[in-house]
Automatic annotation (TrEMBL):
<protein>
    <submittedName>
        <fullName>Alpha-amylase family glycosyl hydrolase</fullName>
    </submittedName>
</protein>
<dbReference type="GO" id="GO:0016787">
    <property type="term" value="F:hydrolase activity"/>
</dbReference>
<dbReference type="Pfam" id="PF02806">
    <property type="entry name" value="Alpha-amylase_C"/>
</dbReference>
<dbReference type="InterPro" id="IPR017853">
    <property type="entry name" value="GH"/>
</dbReference>
<feature type="domain" description="Glycosyl hydrolase family 13 catalytic">
    <location>
        <begin position="17"/>
        <end position="332"/>
    </location>
</feature>
<keyword id="KW-0378">Hydrolase</keyword>
<dbReference type="Pfam" id="PF00128">
    <property type="entry name" value="Alpha-amylase"/>
</dbReference>
<dbReference type="InterPro" id="IPR006047">
    <property type="entry name" value="GH13_cat_dom"/>
</dbReference>
<dbReference type="InterPro" id="IPR006048">
    <property type="entry name" value="A-amylase/branching_C"/>
</dbReference>
Length: 423
């Protein structure tokens, strides 16, 4: 793994909702904005043709795929996709495709063109429906030809359309041996391939199939801390427990929103309330973290997108939320201590007088140091802690102003307030 991904900031692009047009061509016009924001890689939600059988809503689910090797005509053409990738690469951005290996649409090409054994079957002989996803058909990974066909389709996008990697939907529903095999195959063609799993099972990393996985458990704890269902001690315990779960190189996707959370559980404004800002900061400083920005967050759009219909952002312009995320991406890029995986600094806690509310910690590597002081609670706290060897002059990452960190600190901290210091 080169140094690009441990220092990266990801952006999940919901093409359907990002622009009034809902097309790849219109989305490509947003790439300079994202580059200026500090984004390093764009993960596109599925851009493939969507099934019509059992279609949900007016446009259907991105995740009900008719053809793995084509572009949804509602979004444009393959030439539009290639132009999108070319523009991203011109700007220095990587492009990830969303890969849905567990199932297809119920009227996918493979239903008619492939052997019946490519699908799991119900008692009536029809392709089985996974979970309650009634617009999809479950692929049968007992048939090795499915493995080959999936690998062929993924390789198509790498070799012919220059994609840089894949975000793999519900990766735990597919045999890990498949991921190990297909990853080895694809890396022979593209050694710098990036693989992100929407799962957090430990075996996803045993043979190097994935570079990163979701931090779902941490995300749910962040929501719970924001609502005071648990205290920050639960989040601290998670970080320590997570240290030994994965190889040192493994990265964890850290987020306050994504397409699932936004559409089904509410925007970060609804779920996190007044904790929204500090939790976003937390995703940029937490150990192992690979931070994600979801469509609309970069302009503070407080809305739950319709999942199966057009529901575009009504207006799009730089504002205070944009500047907030620009500060966070600069923090990430300017401080090697915050890198994910083994390249970043471990978390060293500074003990404080209110550890059920406050997190005070340091991450440090190669002469770079970041100090985080975070009141992860809805209470005003009189903080009291000793910084010891970490006392000295710093820069406040969010204001750019110099800040002297005393040996002993006593200060009143407002609810959900924080200070991130760098040197």
């Amino acid at each position: 793994m080169d140094c690009f991904w441990p220092r990266a900031v990801l952006y999940e692009m919901n093409v359907r909702q990002l622009t009034p047009e809902g097309t790849l061509r219109a989305a490509a016009a947003k790439l300079p904005f994202l580059k200026d924001l500090g984004v390093d890689a764009v993960w596109l939600m599925p851009i493939y043709p969507i099934g019509e059988a059992g279609r949900k809503g007016s446009l259907g689910s991105y995740y009900s795929i008719r053809d793995y090797c084509a572009v949804n005509p509602e979004m444009g053409t393959m030439a539009d996709f290639d132009a999108f990738v070319a523009e991203a690469h011109r700007l220095g951005l990587k492009v990830l495709l969303d890969w849905v290996a567990n199932h297809t649409a119920r009227d996918a090409r493979w239903i008619d063109e492939a052997p019946a054994s490519w699908y799991e079957r119900d008692a009536s002989g029809e392709p089985a429906v996974p979970w309650d996803w009634s617009d999809t058909a479950k692929l049968n990974y007992a048939d090795r030809d499915v493995w080959r066909a999936q690998g062929d389709a993924m390789e198509f996008w790498i070799t012919q359309h220059a994609v840089d990697g894949f975000r793999c939907d519900m990766a735990m529903l597919v045999p890990v041996d498949f991921w190990n095999e297909v990853s080895r195959r694809l890396r022979r063609t593209k050694p710098d391939l990036f693989m992100l799993a929407e799962a957090e099972e430990r075996n996803l990393f045993e043979e190097g199939a994935f570079d990163a996985c979701y931090a779902w458990e941490m995300h749910h704890l962040m929501n719970d801390v924001a609502r005071q269902r648990v205290r920050v001690t639960a989040l601290r315990d998670y970080i320590y427990a997570d240290r030994g779960r994965y190889p040192d190189s493994a990265m964890r996707l850290a987020f306050t929103s994504n397409h699932d959370e936004n559409s089904w559980n509410g925007s970060e404004f609804a779920r996190l309330g007044d904790a929204r800002e500090i939790m976003a900061v937390f995703t940029f400083v937490v150990p192992r973290g690979l931070p994600l920005i979801y469509t609309g967050q970069e302009i503070g759009y407080d809305h739950s997108f319709a999942f199966f219909d057009r529901d575009p952002i009504p207006s799009y312009a730089s504002n205070a939320f944009t500047e907030f995320y620009r500060r966070l991406t600069a923090l990430r890029h300017g401080n090697p201590a915050l890198a994910a995986g083994e390249r970043g600094g471990a978390m060293v806690e500074i003990r404080n007088n209110a550890e059920d509310c406050l997190m005070t910690f340091v991450r440090e590597t190669g002469g770079n140091r970041v100090v985080a002081v975070m009141n992860l609670s809805p209470y005003a706290i009189h903080a009291d802690y000793y910084t010891g060897i970490y006392a000295g002059m710093y820069t406040d990452a969010m204001t750019g102003e110099p800040f002297g960190l005393r040996g002993r600190v006593e200060e009143d901290m407002a609810p959900w307030s924080y200070r991130i210091l760098t040197r």
